[in-house]
């Protein structure tokens, strides 16, 4: 038997996914509550009950992006895993509408009147954890700064996906991520470690999470 | 005496500047033609005469960004000038509303239904010209690829300004650009050349254009 609370959780998910679809298609301003209501086959009352406002709904879609990625490895693994992770995210942007909408809203949040930096901070911390493992494994240059590099990597990824979206509907994103790594690796990796690293957009498929 | 054609040019500029202000404040969807009309103290007819549609106006604001920067050096000068150029752009984003609106619309162009990659291409070419001079001066690593690096630099700048806008209203943008360079220089500059380069956010003020 499905209880009331469990139904509420499922309704909330349904609304989030419908909102992600609509925001992905039309952005924040163009994505009306009416369309989201229709898409989720729910009521406006349910949307306002769960999310208070359209801004609250956009914020939830932004924050949902990281939690929704089921293919993420549980434990940090160092530089190669960080590289694979960025290709995995590129792949998810191409095929996962909730992630895509979350990233779009995170970039265009001026439209939503939001100022939600915490999602960028989450990705910086996630990347930094890989670098901490890399440091312990002797993969990093002595003067490389993990926190600085992690933030620059998030910035490079963000800009790459904005440009790839416009240039090719994100089809060339893996290629752009490979270019980003070719330019960034000499500033972070020990020459010996660098030679062993592979820029392969499909390598994340081998993860057993 | 001011002729009719000259008045038309001035009206077009007035509209562009008013549109930039409104888009900078409210984004594309939130910036109505009515508000732009009021801000420019002109008529809707004049706006549609010069720009055909709101989308046409947004496109013009995007393309206006590079032309409007009066402080750009005329001739490419190599790696130090490329560094100074990125700090100059960071400074212009903080103080120049037309540039800021153009960059915002270029990033959020999904909202405007545009797909205008040429402005990114223009910046890639501008940066690449500096790298061509740097190559001739022996500043670049033998295996560095100028075109790839120029595109990655545009991506890194774009992502940095998106994150800086959300984190600090762009106050920390120069610091983020310095971090970007610290991570990127080892992959592009010869060690000898790198030691002579300065990451100084104010150095562009010494340009005599």
TrEMBL record, chains A, B:
For the HTH tetR-type domain, which residue ranges apply?
9-69
Mind telling me which Pfam families this protein's record contains?
TetR_C_45, TetR_N
Q: Which ranges does the entry annotate as DNA-binding region?
A: 32-51
UniProt entry keywords in alphabetical sequence: Aminotransferase, DNA-binding, Transcription, Transcription regulation, Transferase
- One term of GO molecular function: transaminase activity
InterPro entries associated with the record: ArpA-like, CprB_TetR_C, Homeodomain-like_sf, HTH-type_TetR-like_transc_reg, HTH_TetR, Tet_transcr_reg_TetR-rel_C_sf
State the protein's name: Branched-chain amino acid aminotransferase
The organism is Kitasatospora aureofaciens
